[in-house]
């Protein structure tokens, strides 16, 4: 087969979870099933060389690249109203094209697969930026109509899609994400931990959150819970590090730290480069992820793969991912989150047990396993 992957999530200067999901699945597919021809396809209005450099590590020798000189932003915006065929730009030679970020454009030749990661724009619209909400409200219904198959990351997300779009229940398939066990593993270079801590302005022990700084990650409740802990433990409590790029509506999160007098205890870092994630995770006392809505929730799984004990919320797909290998808290209760933090701080035996069991569970979520599930979806179409 000629299989094309929409590569827009891979060419951003700051890749998100959607990009890492695409990278993990496509690289494994190309390695496991070399009998097919694979191509990363994308628009580029300028800076072609930069985008090609970004995508080169993923493409390697197994995946070709196809670049079309046109604005992808203009095409996506225009195709919402004018059905300009995708094949006008990318041709008719592909047997299957997979779009990893919700939207299938009009006029794609061959079979189409789309990944719909979650329904947060329906379930919690107040936590979604206006531009994203508009794109999904105006385009997702058409997108799912166009798709021959819909892929999602968890059983939770499949149930959510069916709740809002029951007409598509027969063509939704669950393909769980994986974790890069070469990148996320117990630290083999312990000297890198103090280097990364220094570069991010971290001193001493710390609890770590790593992800986008935005409302649905439940960070205001986490900060309030941490404040409860400081009142009980005092200065011995590890600091709280909130690492990652700014999303949107983050001002109230920063304000909450100031309001509670925690500016010397809560550390906001800059965006963390990929090569620094492993030492940053491995240096943490525990990883904390009390999100109220996740289609899958990669960060807790990545922490488990590093052997770091995890505190996760009981919301959405997170219990499905972490199983019984994390401390589970009530996402809507500061007291519950605080109790989880204190358990992890106080109980070294618990931390060691969670570390051991988390490593075992994370080993089940490989990108090879994910790619095999996805390839079975492709084969259903032929």
Assembly state of the chains shown: single chain
CATH topology of the largest domain: Rossmann fold
- The radius of gyration over CA amounts to 21 Å
How many discrete structural domains?
2
Report on the biggest sheet: 7 strands, parallel
Number of strands: 13
Helix/strand/pairing class, anyone? alpha/beta
Number of helices: 16
Beta-strand portion reads 15-25%
From the N-terminal CA to the C-terminal CA, the straight-line distance is 10 Å
The CATH C-level name of the largest domain is: Alpha Beta
In CATH, the homologous superfamily of the largest domain goes by the name Glycogen Phosphorylase B
Give the overall shape, derived from the CA principal axes.
globular
Strand order of the largest sheet: 3-2-1-4-5-6-7
- In N-to-C order, the SSE pattern is EHEHEHHEEHHEHEHEHEHEHEHEHEHHH
Name of the CATH architecture of the largest domain: 3-Layer(aba) Sandwich
What is the residue-mean pLDDT, rounded to a whole number?
A: 95
Please give the share of residues in helix.
40-55%
Unreliable runs, pLDDT <50, ≥5 residues? none
